[in-house]
């Protein structure tokens, strides 16, 4: 039985493994940002869907063999995200904390893209 993916094209094509770590994390951050945005608008259905897409991308990143040395951070990020959105927020996360965390990866990915095109 084929698993259901939100990001079927990334799961099947191998494109995810071609992205840099910063690009992978920036994509996760985009979904987290959407989850936060929908939560603020009290649309829990869309917030939950965006969060599950973020988790799927986090799982792709964890499975990427190039990220073996980052497994501790990646698994902790996943754990704390789940705690924030569905747990008791034991780690005392906030929307702003997550936005700042992932913003750094957006910045790094942007620098990488500029370097490639110049």
Brief digest:
By secondary structure, this protein is mainly alpha-helical. The protein has helices at 8-13, 15-18, 21-40, 44-63, 71-86, 95-117.
Description:
With 118 residues, this protein is mostly helical. The chain has one domain. The protein has six helices and no strands. It is globular, with a radius of gyration of 14 Å. The mean pLDDT is 91.
Task: Give me some keywords for this one.
0% strand, mainly alpha, globular
SSE topology sketch:
Elements: H1 8-13, H2 15-18, H3 21-40, H4 44-63, H5 71-86, H6 95-117
Q: Uncertain regions: pLDDT < 50 for 5+ in a row?
A: none
| Number of structural domains | 1
What is the averaged pLDDT score?
A: 91
Biggest sheet descriptor: none
How far is the first residue's CA from the last residue's CA?
45 Å
Radius of gyration over alpha carbons?
14 Å
Structural class: mainly alpha
Order of helices and strands: HHHHHH
Q: In DSSP terms, counting alpha (H) and pi (I) runs of 4 or more, how many helices? A: 6
How large is the share of residues in beta strands?
A: under 5%
Could you estimate the helical fraction of the residues in percent? over 70%
Would you report the number of β strands? 0
């Amino acid at each position: 039985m084929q698993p259901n993916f939100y990001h079927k094209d990334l799961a099947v094509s191998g494109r995810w493994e071609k992205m840099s770590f910063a690009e992978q994390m920036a994509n996760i951050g985009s979904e987290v940002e959407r989850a936060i945005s929908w939560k603020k608008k009290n649309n829990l259905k869309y917030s939950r869907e965006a969060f599950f897409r973020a988790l799927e991308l986090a799982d792709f990143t964890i499975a990427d063999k190039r990220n073996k040395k980052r497994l501790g951070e990646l698994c902790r990020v996943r754990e704390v995200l789940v705690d924030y959105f569905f747990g008791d927020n034991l780690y005392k996360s906030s929307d702003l904390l997550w936005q700042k965390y992932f913003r750094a990866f957006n910045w790094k990915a942007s620098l990488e893209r500029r370097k490639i095109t110049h």
